[in-house]
Amino acid sequence: MTPDDVVAQVLRAGLTVATAESLTAGEVAAALAGVPGASGMLKGGVVAYSNVIKERVLAVDPLLLAEAGSVDAEVARQMAVGVRILMDTDLAVSTTGAAGPEPHDGKPVGTVFVAVASASGTRVEEFRFSGNRGEIRQQSCGAALKLLAAALSMGTKDAAG
């Protein structure tokens, strides 16, 4: 799924999107914003590389971060929900994971969680990517776009499945 396809789908549906990114550090938002016309659907994004930002800006539970660490399905869910509320969008996508070169929060390199939030709920998927740091980040960005597109293809009512 290309960024062009996702932007076209979101625009056709008349929806808005926001991103909350940790390991991808803004790559998902940049991929979307690189498409002409994206300003009609992309409201903004938060690069929440630090747990402090996840907590203070995206309202991720600090106890969850302390106990589970940032590489966690529930953290991804709360990031997506938090940025959706913050940016007042129809859909939001989040990424968090361990891109390497070392494991993060006890999770092996390549462990990635992507979430998409909508009014009907939030869907989170776990991935195990391989490759170097850049390749893992690139695969994570692709997974985020694919999950966002999948949510759109289900329709807005059931976007988060």
How is this structure best described in words?
With 161 residues, the chain is of the alpha/beta class. It has one domain (3-153): CinA-like (Maf protein, Alpha-Beta Complex), CATH 3.90.950. It has six helices and five strands. Strands 2-1-3-4-5 form a five-stranded mixed β-sheet, sandwiched between helices. Helix 2 links the parallel strand 1 and strand 2 (42-47). Helix 1 runs parallel beside helix 6 (133-153). The longest helix has 21 residues, at 133-153. The chain is globular, with a radius of gyration of 14 Å. The two termini are 19 Å apart. The model is unreliable at 156-161 (pLDDT under 50).
CATH architecture: Alpha-Beta Complex
Rg estimate, integer Å: 14 Å
Helix and strand composition category:
alpha/beta
Q: Which whole number gives the mean pLDDT?
A: 95
CATH class: Alpha Beta
Note the gap between the termini.
19 Å
The main sheet comes to: 5 strands, mixed
* Poorly predicted regions: 156-161
Helical amount: 40-55%
Q: Kindly report the name of the CATH homologous superfamily.
A: CinA-like
Beta-strand content: 15-25%
Shape: globular
